[in-house]
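Batch 3, record 17
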Amino acid sequence: MATIETGKLNMENLFAIRRVLNSDGTLAGPEPNLAPAQLKEVYRLMVYLRSFDQRSLNLQRQGRMGTFAPFSGQEACQVGSAYLLQKGKDWIFPTYRDHGAMQVLGVPSVNVLRYYMGDEKGSRVPEGVNSFPISIPIATQLVHAVGVAWAAKLKKDDVVTVGYVGDGGTSEGDFHEALNFAAVFNTPAIIFIQNNRYAISTPNSKQFKTRTIAQRALGYDIPGVRVDGQDILAVLAVMQEAIDRARSGGGPTLVEALTFRYGPHTTSDDPKRYRTEEELVEWQARDPIERLRRYLVAKGLWTDQEDEGLWSWAKDQVAAAVTEAESMPRPAVDEIFDYVYAEPTPELVRQKEYLKRQLGRQGSGEANTHG
Amino acid sequence: MATIETGKLNMENLFAIRRVLNSDGTLAGPEPNLAPAQLKEVYRLMVYLRSFDQRSLNLQRQGRMGTFAPFSGQEACQVGSAYLLQKGKDWIFPTYRDHGAMQVLGVPSVNVLRYYMGDEKGSRVPEGVNSFPISIPIATQLVHAVGVAWAAKLKKDDVVTVGYVGDGGTSEGDFHEALNFAAVFNTPAIIFIQNNRYAISTPNSKQFKTRTIAQRALGYDIPGVRVDGQDILAVLAVMQEAIDRARSGGGPTLVEALTFRYGPHTTSDDPKRYRTEEELVEWQARDPIERLRRYLVAKGLWTDQEDEGLWSWAKDQVAAAVTEAESMPRPAVDEIFDYVYAEPTPELVRQKEYLKRQLGRQGSGEANTHG
Amino acid sequence: MAKMTLIAAINDALKVAMRRDPNVLVLGEDVGVNGGVFRATDGLYQEFGEDRAIDTPLAEAGFVGAAMGMAVYGLKPVVEIQFDGFLAPAHEHLVNHIARIRNRSRGRFTCPMVLRIPSFGGIKALEHHSESIESWYANVQGLKLVVPSNPYDAKGLLLAAIEDPDPVLFLEPKRLYRAFRQEVPEEYYTVPLGKAAIAREGKDLTVLTYGPHVQTALEAAERAAADHGWQTEVVDLRSLEPLDLDTIIGSVKKTRRAVVLTEAPRTSGFHSELIALINDHALEYLEAPVARVTGFDVPMPYLLSEDLYIPGVERVVAAMTEVKSW
Amino acid sequence: MAKMTLIAAINDALKVAMRRDPNVLVLGEDVGVNGGVFRATDGLYQEFGEDRAIDTPLAEAGFVGAAMGMAVYGLKPVVEIQFDGFLAPAHEHLVNHIARIRNRSRGRFTCPMVLRIPSFGGIKALEHHSESIESWYANVQGLKLVVPSNPYDAKGLLLAAIEDPDPVLFLEPKRLYRAFRQEVPEEYYTVPLGKAAIAREGKDLTVLTYGPHVQTALEAAERAAADHGWQTEVVDLRSLEPLDLDTIIGSVKKTRRAVVLTEAPRTSGFHSELIALINDHALEYLEAPVARVTGFDVPMPYLLSEDLYIPGVERVVAAMTEVKSW
Ligand SMILES: Cc1ncc(C[n+]2csc(CCOP(=O)(O)OP(=O)(O)O)c2C)c(N)n1
Ligand SMILES: Cc1ncc(C[n+]2csc(CCOP(=O)(O)OP(=O)(O)O)c2C)c(N)n1
Ligand SMILES: [Mg+2]
Ligand SMILES: [Mg+2]
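Prediction for the assembled complex:
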């Protein structure tokens, strides 16, 4: 009987975890077909992002930035998911935790910093960089990713889009609707799940009953795959397949990357309330950066000096970005009114004038001095 | 590679269509274990519902009822999904097309008629009959079905709930959220899909890419099954398993019943715009009532006289219900105000007084005379 | 010129728009093969094909959110929400994204799209098919809100909405779809968003209203003229966001007496905002409190009681009498 | 009596309610093991177990809709919506079902549940974490709408909301969670829904407000007294639905001058309804137009500009001056 047969399927085997490098950096399978330059490039990007993330955490602790969502531990996902996209052509739809992928695609670090410092201009990505602004409402951005992919397909542009979502986000109705639309209209959209095992404090075991999220693909008749999210070479391999499939008209792919965030959900969160030190340590032992470093060193492509050099270069780069971000002026009063519509309505003009009169009366304007 | 393997699964085999009777009424498998009395009872119910549905369509055409959603063709689903439930204990969550199942559970025909005549009192089902009112917002009722099942489980009541949805409804986010909650909390909720191939005019082929809806169950690690929705004995068999599973703590089941509506989506719809006469005729050849009749006759349980008697009995029963429904008074003015809250707010009291004053002024009250 | 019903004018507007701009497309439930449950998109599938008259799966968040993606990418989606009560599943995309993407991205991304929504009661439909949702969305910034009251405006306003660089909720008075015909030019023309119309001139009192209620107001004005000789000015707002404050205040200052008419639930309705605006800009001109004729604070009743809910001519005349006899 | 912050008072109310009624349970995102992102449900999981302090999957429609089922079945769910901006996915269940099931079933099914929603701005959070949604839901019938402004009321109103036979949206002023402490009884007590409080007595003008803005109004009243000697009456509405019209109108008739204060977007806000009610019931008493101090018709700005949006004491004093110097 059908209801019994289906139970027989072993999803963990069916969706076996793709891996290229073992935790210790040794090859788990065939050599990846990436040029040394590319290997070093993705390594550089991961190091840069780790430095950026750590520095941002410090800025927040020092009160120089607002609530911040760190991705440390997920660098292989951040870099691997965006590195192979065609800049200026392909699109990404990030969450608050995907500002790493945004930077890989070309969003300046300064934008990300200004965003988290509380300036909408941070969300104004430069022309030519096709990254949607950070989307905070969980899973909604997946539908946008499918919409843009669909539009591109209708316009006969061979564009690929990547929608980001977390393990928790897969529970939202939008996850389902996005997958169904992607499947029905065969849109070139890749749904990239970073399963970091927790949605704030909520573990996978309370989020879904299945052992994999990738198996959801079976419900839409689209390809699904699980990948070791701490192994950037595996993430790159899986993304290459998904991107090729999408670009050649093969439609969407559901990717589940198994990963872990080292830090808190955001700077307002205390992970000790819901996860153990052991779990963290266990995952740090699979660190994506260290893993690739060992592989590069073993291949004779990388030295300790080069590594030191890279880390200090990254530190400086980030420092420069921070300086630039902190040197930017506060948003002008006009800004909060001028982008609601293409043309401000008469009512908005009245409101802006009122506020300016008020601030005038209040001298420096109590309102916009702190923060 | 995982993405290829999954393609190998043949979902139509994995979720083979359950069938007990062939279209001609001959046995497709082993004898069902239903007593003759039960066989006649479900036959009687289907005949009654067919008569009810046809008469309701006529009432609407004569302007004696508002927009009506007919289910003719889906009687095996309507009766088979509700017949085995424990009245006064188990709950159903019907759509606008499931007023057949409602009547099987014990909602008086008069309620259904008054509902479609435009009287909220029709939605006030009698105490002891656990049917939610008709839910029109697509798929929302599935979440309620899971919520009630969850509550019953928390209260240690061995209650079973059935949530109804159509093929189109499976595209809504609520379908996904309901299945995920049912799976995670292992609630005794049965999601009963009547796949009648169209959502108003939209065919399955535009609704989802898969060949079955039942396979969605794989994404939640819950049992899924496809059944011939024109074969009431098969529907009963599948529901018996699902009910037993739910009542014994085995959790939810996703049932996809393959069926067809003979009539329009509602009385405002014209099916000729989107479906062929052939398709209708093809499905009428699998009629659920005729199929069971042949089986009963072949088993010597039923005669032509009995059949004629039953149809005229049904006609009379329905006629009596219609008379009763049409003899009921119009809803009183107070009714639209008195059930918004347990206690009307002062503002509502003011509004009610105002309206009554107005209607007084207007004499008979232009407002509530027509309709 | 041809005499058209309001639904024909909308259908004509869509055809005209799709012929002149290849980026315009319609999508939603049953808008393709079936031509929409009200036939607003009739013939589009045949003329423009399945890529421009798209039948979507039954998922409002899905197709409204996807349409936003299309709009950002450069298409001009015109989404049909089958009935007012079914916009709710797309509420999150509407208020958290569609209304905000321009502001959030400081103009880098924009979302020119139209949501056509058959709205308000009066057709004795089932529950959730007769809702007044304007009060909520008038409080949401970044959306425009347009409500035509006749075939000519319906075509011109819809074409203006499609041209508009920002997202527009286009609330169609479903009970007027086939209520009457009017001369409507076949060619392209627009009626600007944000300009009210004086549907009837008068000096004794003002009725501020929109959409299907304009007809009610005109009838009431007729009756008031016949019974009392009052010259009532009926202001058809046409667009609630942006709102034509000058016309509203100008009329109230002239007549010094005002009635606001909607069928939205009374508490915290858009009519309340109209009264607040009069308070802000013309209070000292008022000879009497503004009278509000609205729906009640109850869910829209089922069809047998629908007429109890929807303000009829009598209720409007009673309100006029109130403000005149204060 | 113990001195409690507002968040502690809410946590205490939940514990008291759960101890006295086994049918009361809390559910939502991270409300169990983690005790909620604001710690409102801290300790409930430990004391009452995973069946009464339930961590749900991340799906608002799912747990709000399921909670409705629970309520109809006889449980008393208290749902936490993590932040105001994230109620949107549950909008459909709220307006089309939770608010209507009693009316739809003519009283056969009822839905006594509470949605706790940390609301309004002032904590310099990320986007969607600082919204004012009361204006929409005040226009939705069948829901009650409660907004406490201090620890004592927060506990008493929440217990009253849990006791209430109808669904209640409980909007918590998140910026006051830890702003100050107040004597709060440990035992069970309720503050009735629908009764406003006179937060400060005065005869010269009235400020109508609620929630976090009550603090602003009191400060402004202090300053007005100091600078101008005006005696300002501050009315804390506490519950918007049901609304205490008598207290509102009584105060306005007494002072003849009124300011309405909220941080909701200006157009079609709940403050507009307050002005409309004054128009309906006390227009002839007004010495000046009602002044409204509100948010602007823009999305709540990111943190660097948040203070530009939220009405501060200066804006309130300026409005008071307007109505006094009219
Ligand atoms: C619709 C909605 N509900 C709730 C939230 C609050 N929230 C922000 S992040 C988060 C958890 C997300 O978990 P997951 O999807 O696993 O992504 P992760 O943070 O782990 O990267 C929640 C509940 C939100 N942003 N949007
Ligand atoms: C949320 C929502 N969107 C749209 C509608 C309008 N509508 C009513 S029935 C229907 C089609 C439903 O099709 P299906 O789920 O297959 O059920 P069936 O009518 O075939 O039984 C639609 C789109 C609705 N009732 N609710
Ligand atoms: Mg996660
Ligand atoms: Mg169907």
